[in-house]
Design brief:
The model has no long low-confidence stretch (mean pLDDT 98). The chain is an alpha/beta fold. The chain contains twelve helices and twelve strands. Strands 8-7-6-9-10-11-12 form a seven-stranded parallel β-sheet, with helices on both faces. It has a five-stranded parallel β-sheet with strand order 2-1-3-4-5, sandwiched between helices. It binds 3-phosphoglyceric acid.
């Protein structure tokens, strides 16, 4: 069995070693394609693979069509919007993710972005504190829960809206569950996004919703760029000089945002929420173990298609 690690944004070296150990102990072989710059390299590499471990790497119908031996794709991470599930199912390829394995890393980054916003991008001027401020957690999954845990330490007032998570689960953590996104944005000066990119959520964070936020609003995005209506966010930031947007996923209109709002807009150069040795180890080891368990025991826990 050949297990391809295809990561345009590579894991920490230690994580690759650990994956290799797990795979080789099971009598399987590792193929490594890191930092590739062209899809052609991926198309070539997948031809030999029985399994693939990926991050945000795109596995579409074209990739699946040339991967004739492929039986399983594991997205080492949470969001699997980069995999064409329909095409995978049609080819009887199992797709899994590794939920929860990198969520603390993402939550720490989101929290750091909140501090960066409150302290005026560390520009030396007098900023504000997070203590006592209202934080709205938009979707209460693994990352949202970790954000709540950290924000409690800051002394923030916590609110969450999640269309699928029962209110009792949210409130057990000392977080007030609200019944709509509108109510969340109306209530909270800080909002941290943790929704996946789906047909329903794409472009859903729009002018009308964001304009409900109170004065000195701060929107933190460590989720996906696709959930933001970028043109409307830009318009809103023009209309509201009090509004800040900090993101871990560079928008398509980055140049214009940078030019127009140098003190209110920040993006990381490359998505780095899950870029820690710990998260890479956790997600990488989970992915390798899931593949070995799938081949040796037929275990399909964490299958998403
Ligand atoms: C995830 O969905 O797990 C995160 O967005 C991390 O993505 P990455 O592995 O591409 O950094």
């Amino acid at each position: 069995m050949k297990i391809l690690i295809a990561t345009e944004k590579p894991f920490a070296a230690e994580a690759v070693k650990r994956i290799q150990q797990i795979v080789e102990n099971a009598g399987m072989e590792i193929l490594l394609l890191e930092k590739y710059t062209d899809k052609i390299q991926l198309l070539e590499a997948v031809k030999e693979a029985d399994a693939i471990v990926i991050r945000s790497d795109v596995i579409d119908a074209e990739v699946l069509n040339v991967a004739q031996k492929l039986k399983i794709v594991v997205r080492a991470g949470a969001g699997y919007d980069n995999v064409d599930l329909q095409a995978a199912t049609a080819r009887q390829v199992v797709v899994m993710n590794t939920p929860g394995q990198n969520s603390n890393a993402v939550a720490e980054l989101a929290s750091g972005l909140m501090v960066y916003a409150a302290r005026n991008f560390y520009d030396g001027t007098s900023g504000s504190e997070l203590m006592g401020k209202k934080l709205g957690i938009h979707a209460y999954g693994n990352v949202g829960r970790n954000v709540a845990r950290i924000a409690k330490g800051f002394g923030m007032e916590l609110y969450a809206y999640d269309a699928f998570c029962p209110a009792e689960i949210i409130e057990k953590d000392g977080v007030k569950a609200l019944s709509s996104a509108e109510e969340l944005y109306e209530t909270c000066q800080y909002v941290s996004l943790h929704i996946p990119a789906t047909v329903e959520t794409k472009n859903s964070i729009n002018y009308a919703l964001l304009n409900k936020m109170p004065k000195k609003a701060v929107l933190i995005n460590t989720a996906r760029k696709e959930v933001i209506n970028e043109a409307e966010l830009l318009k809103l930031m023009e209309a509201r000089p009090d509004f800040k947007y900090l993101t871990d996923i560079m928008p398509d209109n980055d140049t214009e945002m940078k030019e127009k709002f140098p003190k209110r807009y920040f993006t990381t150069p490359k998505k780095m929420g899950a870029q820690t040795a710990e998260a890479n180890n956790n997600a990488g080891v989970a992915a390798a173990s899931q593949i070995v368990d799938f081949f040796l025991k037929g275990n399909t826990k964490f299958q998403v298609n």
